[in-house]
Structures are given as C-alpha cells and as structure tokens.
Specification:
By secondary structure, the chain is α/β, with parallel strands linked by helices. The chain has helices at 26-41, 65-81, 95-101, 114-124, 166-170, 178-190, 226-233, 255-259, 276-282, 291-301, 320-333, 360-383; strands spanning 2-3, 17-23, 45-47, 55-60, 85-89, 107-108, 148-152, 154-155, 174-175, 195-199, 214-217, 220-223, 239-242, 266-268, 306-313, 337-342, 389-397, 401-406, 417-420, 430-438, 443-446. The protein has twelve helices and 21 strands. Strands 1, 2, 3, 4, 5 and 6 form a six-stranded mixed β-sheet that branches. Strands 17-18-19-21-20 form a five-stranded mixed β-barrel. It has a three-stranded parallel β-sheet with strand order 7-10-13. A hairpin with a 3-residue loop joins strand 17 (389-397) and strand 18 (401-406). Bound molecules: iron/sulfur cluster. Residues 157, 159-161, 164, 166-167, 201-202, 285 line the site of iron/sulfur cluster.
C-alpha cells in the first residue's frame, strides 16, 4: 500500500518541504501519520512530489522479500527524482541491505524510532521555527481519508511465528495505556472520523505486557485489556472495527458487544492455516482444534458476524493432505472474507530451515485452488445479504455511482457496496441501502 498525504496549501514557502512515501501495512501507516504530525508541528511542509522537495522520507516495509523489493525501488525512485533521501520503517532494521543497493541515502532509522528519524530530518533540512506554522490540528495529520482512521494500540509482538520476523524488527509487545488510546480516539471522532480501525500485531494480546494495568478515561478506571477497550470504544458512537485478533478464549467475551451493536460485527483473525500440524510448524498463537465449534457459537450469538482471515499456502512441509484439509475446513467454516498468500521465505525467519520446501509450481496450483474455493464461499455468503437493508459508509462519490462499505467490509482489503443513485451523497455519510445483487466479493445496492 502506498499513500501520499493531502494537506492544506502552504502559507510560507520558506519552510522546508518533505516528500513522504508510506509503504506497508496499516500499522506502518499509523507510524507515518505520527511522523508527519510531528514534522508539521515543527513547521515542515509536505510536498506533493519528490521534485522541489528539500528531502524525501521513505517509510519502508520489510515483511516479505517482495515488500523489501518494493521499498528498495521506492528509495531508488526518490534518489533519482530528488537525491536527498532518509529511510525509516521495518526495512530500516536491516540498513546493510539498503546501503548495498543505495549507498547515497542520507540516513536510515528503524521502525518506531520516531526520535531518530526526526533527528535525521532536522540535520538534513533544519526546521524553520514559526509560531504560526507550528500549529497543527489537535487530532494530528492523517494519511487516511477523513472519515476513517487507524488506531494503533500497541507495538511489537510476544509470539514467535516461524515465518515472521516482526518480533525481531519491532521487539516484544508494548501496549499503550487504555486512557491514552481513548484520548486519541476521542480526538479523531471530534475531527469527523466515522470509523476507527483498531490495529496492532496481536490485538487480543493487548495489555498482557502491563498485566492489564488500570488507566483513567472519562470518569472511571479501565483495564488495559481487549474487552475494556472494546467497551470503551463502543461508547464513542462511531464504527469500531477490530483487526488482527487471535482466537484466545477471552475473545468470546467481545462477541456480545458486537451483537449489541457497540462495535462492528466484524473480526479479522489471521488463521494462516487450519491443519494442526502446519499450525504447529508455524508456531501460531492460540491455535486449537475447537475453532470450528467456537466460530459456530460466535455466529449463534451474533448472526451478522463477518469473519475475515488470511492464509498461507505452500508453507514448508505442507502435504497435499494437509492442503486438502484446509480446503475442507474453509468449506465447513465458511469465512466471509479471505486473503491468501503463497509462502515466501523471509531472510531471518526460522521457517527457512524447515524441511520440505514446496516447489513453486505446486504452490501456484494450490493458490489457484484455494482462491477458486474461497470465491465460491464468499459469493455464497454474500448472496445471503441480497434483499436485506444495510447501513453503509460512503467512501467515494461519482456522478451516478457511489462506492460505500457495509459493516462487513474493511477499507482497502474487503469488497465494496456500489450504489446506483443520482442523489447527492457525501463522503463519510452513513446511509441505509437495499442490497439488490451480489458478486463474488462486492454488493450492488439502491437507496
Ligand atoms: S503474531 Fe506471529 S505473524 Fe503476527 S507479528 Fe507476531 S510473530 Fe509475526
């Protein structure tokens, strides 16, 4: 994902101008927003292009080798177009690789090293102090559209999935106190945000590192805990979407809040596989054989629940039998939204040493079989919505077609609801529509 920021026109041309490239996942996007907020507060301007900027800042993603290649290409483009480049983000944890490809970058800092990246910017393009320019909206600068925003609740991860190097890059779990998260959420809502997307590496583990320490918000004390966070966010009166949740037993407690409409009936659980032996080789957290039964109970409590997940096919040692188990499991569980990746060895991941690497052509075939199966399941699940009335949030307005999302669609990763209408709707508006038709991934509706 790449995002460029949209900001009000500059008022003082003499202020240093930064061109910003943000690559990677929503968590990286939140980091970008924080860095930009700080830079704006110090009087920097954002440039819409690399040319003419005093400096280019590239926030990289280093999760997969393909993401690293994308990051290196973005750095290369920035050097070509501007020549003065600072690199930060996940890939910054591996400076040698960056220097080998692009020796002329000015500085490299790692993920969440806000102070270091700001220090590097100060050195390369010293800030111009101006009390008027130093003003920044209290809610900060957001790269995401005004009507939705990501809310990052923690950094790092205590799990050690064998295919993942995030804990090496970002360290162990560090949860933000609930009060601090809620104050940020309140500011976003006050600034017009209609949907908050809760992100972290492992949202359901929130607060484990601080032993669920109590923290003050409004007139009471709350535990820094997944359930309390869901309850508190449910008081804000906006859409609240939970992402990257693992099926720990305590997740069951949050499902009734979804049924009551306090938070969205949507849960994003990156299962990655279904076969117990593959999950063991992956060292996935909270994997257990009773998942099918739990999902069935969740849907009894909250029939509108949308479950999204991601999977990896071709993980080392994955046999045809294990893969078929996964296909059967998908059929049985009937997940609503699913993404699928072909296994990619990431430098530094322990899964590289596992036996039985799956040949690329086998992986490719499995990926197509998986996608075909899931397209059928997704179409089946979506068809159930035809004829119902759904509340949707407007994302984009065209002359005759409006693109919106239902409660079951997260921005950027899920499908859309297309509304044919000449009525003037506004971006960020909540409207109720009638679902007329369903495709494999999208819905078509009228007012
Ligand atoms: S839960 Fe696993 S995949 Fe996710 S960040 Fe932690 S170690 Fe990586």
């Amino acid at each position: 994902m790449t995002d460029t920021a949209t900001l009000p026109p500059p008022t003082d041309r003499a202020a240093p101008k930064i061109s910003f490239v943000s690559l990677g996942c929503p968590k990286a996007l939140v980091d970008s927003e924080r860095i930009i907020t700080r830079l704006r507060a110090e009087g920097y301007e954002l440039s819409r292009s690399h040319q003419g900027a005093d400096l280019v800042l590239v926030n990289t993603c280093g999760f997969l080798d393909s993401a690293k290649a994308e990051s290196l290409a973005a750095i290369g483009d920035a050097l070509k177009e501007n020549g003065r480049v600072i690199v930060t983000g996940c890939m910054g944890a591996e400076p040698d690789q960056i220097r080998a490809a692009h020796p002329s970058v000015l500085a490299i800092t790692g993920p969440q090293q806000y102070e270091s990246v700001l220090a590097a910017v100060h050195e390369a393009a010293p800030p111009k102090h101006d009390p008027f320019l130093d003003l920044v909206p209290p809610q900060g600068i957001k790269l995401t559209p005004r009507h939705y925003a990501y809310l990052k609740i923690s950094e790092g991860c205590n799990n050690r999935c064998t295919f993942c190097i995030i804990p090496k890059l970002r360290g162990d779990l560090v949860s933000r106190p609930l009060g601090e998260v809620m104050r940020e959420a309140e500011k976003l809502v006050a600034a017009g945000v209609k949907e908050l997307l809760v992100v972290s590496q492992d949202t359901s583990a929130y607060g484990i590192d601080v032993k669920y320490a109590e923290s003050q918000w409004r007139d009471r004390s709350w535990r820094t805990k997944f359930l309390d966070l869901a309850q508190a966010l449910g008081e804000l009166g906006v859409w609240v979407r939970m992402q990257y949740v693992y099926p720990y037993p305590h997740v069951d407690e949050v499902i009734p809040l979804m049924a009551e409409g306090k938070i969205l009936p949507y849960i994003d659980i990156p299962f990655q596989h279904a076969h117990p032996d593959v999950l063991r080789r992956m060292k996935r957290p909270a994997h257990q054989e009773k998942t099918v039964e739990r999902i069935r109970r969740w849907r009894e409590i909250c029939p509108d629940l949308t479950i999204r997940s991601t999977f990896i096919v071709g993980f080392p040692g994955e046999t045809e039998k294990e893969f078929e188990f996964l296909l059967d499991w998908l059929d049985e569980v009937g997940l609503d939204r699913v993404g699928c990746f072909k296994y990619e060895p990431v430098a530094g991941a322990t899964s590289n040493a596992l036996e039985g690497q799956v040949p690329p052509e086998v992986m490719e075939r499995r990926w197509h079989r998986f996608m075909k199966k899931q397209a059928e399941i997704s179409a089946r699940r979506l068809k159930r919505k035809v004829g119902t009335r759904q509340q949707v949030l407007v994302d984009e307005v065209g002359p005759t077609v409006v693109r919106a999302r239902s409660k079951g669609d997260a921005p950027e990763i899920d499908g859309s609801v297309f509304i044919h209408t000449r009525r003037k709707l506004a971006v960020g508006e909540l409207v109720t529509v009638k679902i007329d038709r369903a495709g494999d991934y999208d819905l078509f509706a009228s007012l």
